[in-house]
UniProtKB/TrEMBL annotation:
PPR repeats lie at residues 53-87, 88-114. Keywords: Repeat. Gene3D superfamilies: Tetratricopeptide repeat domain. Belongs to the PPR family. P subfamily. This is Pentacotripeptide-repeat region of PRORP domain-containing protein. It comes from Arabis nemorensis.
Amino acid sequence: MNRIGDATKVLDRLRSKGFSPDTVTYDIMIGTLCSRWKLDLAMKVFRSVVNRSLLTYTILIEATMLEGGVDEALKLLDEMLSRGLKPDMFTYNTVIRGMCKEGMVDRAFGIERL
Protein backbone atom coordinates (compact mmCIF):
# COMPACT_ATOMS: atom_id res chain seq x y z
CA MET A 1 0.00 0.00 0.00
CA ASN A 2 3.09 2.21 -0.09
CA ARG A 3 2.73 3.26 3.56
CA ILE A 4 6.41 3.20 4.41
CA GLY A 5 6.09 5.96 6.99
CA ASP A 6 3.48 3.95 8.87
CA ALA A 7 5.67 0.84 8.81
CA THR A 8 8.60 2.83 10.21
CA LYS A 9 6.38 4.19 12.98
CA VAL A 10 5.26 0.66 13.88
CA LEU A 11 8.89 -0.47 14.15
CA ASP A 12 9.74 2.56 16.28
CA ARG A 13 6.74 1.89 18.52
CA LEU A 14 7.73 -1.76 18.95
CA ARG A 15 11.27 -0.77 19.92
CA SER A 16 10.03 1.89 22.37
CA LYS A 17 7.89 -0.74 24.14
CA GLY A 18 10.90 -3.02 24.57
CA PHE A 19 10.24 -5.40 21.69
CA SER A 20 13.06 -6.28 19.38
CA PRO A 21 12.02 -7.03 15.80
CA ASP A 22 13.92 -9.97 14.34
CA THR A 23 16.08 -10.03 11.22
CA VAL A 24 13.17 -11.27 9.11
CA THR A 25 11.18 -8.16 10.01
CA TYR A 26 14.10 -5.92 9.12
CA ASP A 27 14.81 -7.83 5.90
CA ILE A 28 11.20 -7.29 4.81
CA MET A 29 11.37 -3.60 5.68
CA ILE A 30 14.73 -3.07 3.97
CA GLY A 31 13.67 -5.08 0.90
CA THR A 32 10.46 -3.07 0.59
CA LEU A 33 12.33 0.22 0.83
CA CYS A 34 14.85 -0.91 -1.79
CA SER A 35 12.09 -2.03 -4.16
CA ARG A 36 10.62 1.48 -3.91
CA TRP A 37 13.99 3.12 -4.69
CA LYS A 38 14.41 4.45 -1.16
CA LEU A 39 17.95 3.22 -0.66
CA ASP A 40 18.88 6.04 1.72
CA LEU A 41 16.05 5.12 4.07
CA ALA A 42 16.86 1.40 3.71
CA MET A 43 20.46 2.14 4.70
CA LYS A 44 19.25 4.11 7.72
CA VAL A 45 17.17 1.12 8.87
CA PHE A 46 20.09 -1.21 8.11
CA ARG A 47 22.49 0.83 10.26
CA SER A 48 20.06 0.57 13.19
CA VAL A 49 20.04 -3.25 13.03
CA VAL A 50 22.59 -5.00 15.23
CA ASN A 51 22.18 -8.58 13.97
CA ARG A 52 22.42 -8.32 10.20
CA SER A 53 21.81 -11.41 8.12
CA LEU A 54 23.36 -12.56 4.88
CA LEU A 55 20.02 -11.81 3.22
CA THR A 56 20.03 -8.26 4.60
CA TYR A 57 23.43 -7.61 3.06
CA THR A 58 22.49 -9.24 -0.25
CA ILE A 59 19.33 -7.11 -0.53
CA LEU A 60 21.32 -3.93 0.01
CA ILE A 61 24.19 -4.98 -2.23
CA GLU A 62 21.72 -5.59 -5.06
CA ALA A 63 19.92 -2.27 -4.52
CA THR A 64 23.23 -0.41 -4.40
CA MET A 65 24.42 -2.12 -7.59
CA LEU A 66 21.15 -1.20 -9.34
CA GLU A 67 21.80 2.44 -8.55
CA GLY A 68 25.27 2.13 -10.06
CA GLY A 69 27.15 2.17 -6.79
CA VAL A 70 29.55 -0.70 -7.38
CA ASP A 71 32.16 0.64 -4.97
CA GLU A 72 29.55 1.18 -2.23
CA ALA A 73 28.17 -2.31 -2.83
CA LEU A 74 31.67 -3.77 -2.52
CA LYS A 75 32.10 -1.91 0.78
CA LEU A 76 28.95 -3.64 2.01
CA LEU A 77 30.40 -6.95 0.85
CA ASP A 78 33.63 -6.24 2.75
CA GLU A 79 31.64 -5.32 5.86
CA MET A 80 29.65 -8.53 5.53
CA LEU A 81 32.86 -10.58 5.27
CA SER A 82 34.39 -8.78 8.26
CA ARG A 83 31.36 -9.81 10.33
CA GLY A 84 32.04 -13.44 9.47
CA LEU A 85 29.17 -13.84 7.01
CA LYS A 86 30.07 -15.90 3.96
CA PRO A 87 28.57 -14.99 0.58
CA ASP A 88 26.25 -17.55 -0.94
CA MET A 89 25.37 -18.15 -4.59
CA PHE A 90 22.81 -15.32 -4.55
CA THR A 91 25.29 -12.82 -3.13
CA TYR A 92 27.94 -13.78 -5.68
CA ASN A 93 25.42 -13.60 -8.54
CA THR A 94 24.29 -10.17 -7.39
CA VAL A 95 27.82 -8.78 -7.20
CA ILE A 96 29.00 -10.31 -10.48
CA ARG A 97 25.85 -9.24 -12.37
CA GLY A 98 26.19 -5.68 -11.07
CA MET A 99 29.84 -5.45 -11.97
CA CYS A 100 29.30 -6.84 -15.46
CA LYS A 101 26.42 -4.43 -16.02
CA GLU A 102 28.80 -1.58 -15.23
CA GLY A 103 31.42 -2.95 -17.66
CA MET A 104 33.71 -4.31 -14.96
CA VAL A 105 33.95 -7.83 -16.33
CA ASP A 106 37.67 -8.21 -15.59
CA ARG A 107 37.13 -7.03 -12.03
CA ALA A 108 34.20 -9.44 -11.64
CA PHE A 109 36.52 -12.38 -12.37
CA GLY A 110 38.41 -11.50 -9.17
CA ILE A 111 35.32 -11.98 -7.03
CA GLU A 112 35.85 -15.75 -6.95
CA ARG A 113 38.74 -15.22 -4.55
CA LEU A 114 36.51 -14.14 -1.67
